[in-house]
Amino acid sequence: MDERDWLILRALYEHKNITKAAQELYMSQPALTNRLKDIEEKFKVKIAMRGRRGVHFTPQGEYLANYADQIILNLRRIKENVLNFDKNIGGTLRIGTSRLAAKYQLPKILRLFRNEYPEVDFKVIATWSRNIPNYLKSEEVHIGIFRGEQYWPDEKHLLSEEKICIASKNRIKLQDLPNLPRIDFETDSLLQVEIDNWWKRNYTQPPQISMEVDQVDTCKEMVINGLGYAILPNIVVQGVKDIDTMDIFNEDGQPITRRTWMAYQKKSTDINAVRVFVDFVKSKKF
User: Fold this and answer.
1) What is the pLDDT of residue 26?
2) For a Cys staple, 13 with which of 25, 65, 236, 271, CB 3.0–4.6 Å?
3) CATH class for the region spanning 3-72
4) pLDDT tens digits for 93-115?
5) What is the 3-class SS of 36-81, one letter each residue?
6) C-beta of residue 154 within 8 angstroms of C-beta of residue 135
7) What CATH class has 91-161+259-283?
C-alpha cells in the first residue's frame, strides 16, 4: 500500500461518508470505491460496508484505520530524510495557517520564498488559529502560522502585530457606538474576549448587534455598504478607501493589538526545506 491508500482509509474512517472522503481527497466517488476494493483485495478482508447511515468499518477495517496516521507520518519522514541526503533544497513544505494569515500574509511570504527556492512545493491547510498547535504536535504540518496568544511550548517567531480598530462607512463618535448597528463576525475566543473586555470598560449597555456573519471579509463588505460598524484587525481594511477607522485602546492607553506568530518544532529544522524557510522568514520583515 502507498500513502494514497492510507489517506483514503483515514479520510473514510473520519467522515464515515464516501462523498465527503472523496471531496477531501479530490477524487471521484467511483475512483475512491475502486481503490478501497483494491485495498480489500490486498489484505483479503472486508474493510468497510455502506449503509443508510453512512460507511461502517469492520473490526479489521478499524484496525487498519487506527494505524493510518502513524503510517502516513512514517512515510513522510522517510521521504523527507531521503531528500535531506541531497544538497538541493526541495520537497514539500506543509504549512498550517489561520484563515486571515492565509489571505493577507502567507501569499507574499511564499512568493518571495519560491523566488529563491523554486524546487520547494507547498501544502497549505487554512483553519482556525486554535487548531494550529495540534497540527504541529501531530506533525501534520511543519510550520504553523497562528494569530493571538495560542499556547505553543516549542519554537515560535513573531511575524507581525497589527492594531484592532473600529471600522465604519462614515466617521462616527465613540460615545454613539451603543446606539449604532454593529456587525459581528465569527472569530476565535481570544480576540472575542479582548473586544468584549474593551466594550465593558467603556460602556454600560450592550452593543446593538444587527448582523452576524461567518467571515471577516464578509463583515468588511457589509461595513463598506453602510450596514453598520465592526471591530476588527486593521489588516483587513488597510488600503480600503471606503472605510473610516479608529484604533481602540486598553486601560493603559496603549493600542489593542493582535500578533501573528510562526511556530514549529525545533527538531523539524533538521529537514532542509523547513530550516531554510524558518531562516528566510526570520530574515525578513512582513
Assistant:
1) 86
2) 65
3) mainly alpha
4) 999 999 999 999 999 999 999 99
5) HHHHHHHHCCCCEEEECCEEEECHHHHHHHHHHHHHHHHHHHHHHH
6) no
7) alpha beta
